[in-house]
Amino acid sequence: MQIAIVGAGIGGPTLAYWLSHYGHQPTLIEKAPRLRTDGYVVDFWGGGYTVAERMGLTADLHAAGYAIREVRLVDRHSRRVGGFSAELFRRGLDGRFVSIPRGDLAAMIYRSIEHRAETLFSESVSAVTQDDSGVRVALERGGSRRFDLLIGAGGIHSPVRDLVFGPESEFARDLGYRVAAFEAEGYRPRDELVYLAYTMPGRMVARFAMRDEKTLFLFVFAGEYTGGPDPRDVSQVKEALHHVFGHAGWECPEILRRLDGASDVYFDRASQIVMDHWSNGRVALIGDAAAAVSLLAGEGAGLAMVQAYLLAGELNRADGDHQDAFGRYERRLRPIVEARQRSAREFAAMFAPKTALGLWTRNLASRLLNVPRLAQWVVRSEFRDDIALPEYVA
C-alpha cells in the first residue's frame, strides 16, 4: 500500500521504517524545511527501547545518549535540598534506560529510512478527502496526491487531526503548566551527568551539561504566571520567561542572559490529547496526535515508537484490511495509554509544586528514593513496562 505519514519527528519515521519493512511504500510529509533538532532531553526506556532494539539502534542510542548519575534539587544558594541517584533506576531496568536529546533520537530514526521512504520537506496538508478506495491529500504548496491510507504523526498540534477529526480545542486537556527549553555554549558552572534543578512554588529551572560544551536549560512554570506567548514568536517566549524568572534568584540572571542570545527556543503547554477514537475511515493517528501523555511525563517519544510499531504490524497482519488493523491497534493500546495519562496528570505538579508545602513534600519524597528497597518498588510500579510487543512476521 501507498501510505502518507504527516510528521517526521519520532513516530512518523518509526512507522515509515516498519511499513517499508513489510513491503509498503511510505511517504513522509513534514512542514519544516529540514529535520527538526530542537526540544529537550527525554528519558527512554520500556517499550520504546524494545522497538529501537528491533530496529538495530541500541548502539546509536547509547552513543548519543547520557547515563545520568544524579538528579539534584537545590535552593537559591545552590545547597542540596533533595534528589536521588539515577543509577538505582538504571539497575532496576537492567541497563535498558538512557537519557537522550529528542533531536538526536529523531535523527537516528530518520537515518534508518531516508533512502527507503520519500520525504516531502517544507510541505503540509491543506485538505483531506477520502472514499472507499483511498485518500486524496491536498498539499499546501499546490497539487494533490492520492494514497491508500493517511496517518497523522504531527504531534500534539496535528494538522491531520484538525482536518479529519476536529479542532485541537475539542481534544486538548491543559495540565496548567508551560515548558520551555534552549541550549547555550560555554555555560559555567557545569555538573557532568547531573540533572540539576532549582524550584520555587510554581516555577522550576533546570540545567544539564551536554557534549561539545553545550548546556541544556529547561523551564517549567504554572500557566497563571503568563498569558501565554505565541510559541512561534521567539521574542514573545523570551519576554515571558524574563517575566516569570527575572527575579527568581539562583543562576537565573545568567541563564536569562544566555537565553537572549539563543536563536532556537522551544515552548509549549503541558497538555494531553484525549480522543474517543484514533481512526476515521482510511485515516489514523499515532503518538501525541492521538493520545499525548504530557511533555512532563517524558514518555511521549517511546510511546510514539510503540504505537508506530504496533500499527505497522497490525496493518501487515490484516493483509490490507485497514479497518481491522486500526481497530486492533487501538484496542491493544488504549487501556495502557489512558493509564499513563492518569499517572501523568498526578505527576505534573511534582515538577513545580505551587505551594511551599508541596515543594517541601516533593523534596522529601525525592530523598527517600535513595533508599534501595523504595527505589526498587518505584521502578517496578512506575517504570517497568506493561506493553507486550508481538513479533510480527514480515
UniProtKB/TrEMBL annotation:
<protein>
    <submittedName>
        <fullName>Oxidoreductase</fullName>
    </submittedName>
</protein>
<dbReference type="Pfam" id="PF01494">
    <property type="entry name" value="FAD_binding_3"/>
</dbReference>
<dbReference type="InterPro" id="IPR051704">
    <property type="entry name" value="FAD_aromatic-hydroxylase"/>
</dbReference>
<feature type="domain" description="FAD-binding">
    <location>
        <begin position="2"/>
        <end position="318"/>
    </location>
</feature>
<dbReference type="InterPro" id="IPR002938">
    <property type="entry name" value="FAD-bd"/>
</dbReference>
<dbReference type="GO" id="GO:0071949">
    <property type="term" value="F:FAD binding"/>
</dbReference>
<dbReference type="InterPro" id="IPR036188">
    <property type="entry name" value="FAD/NAD-bd_sf"/>
</dbReference>
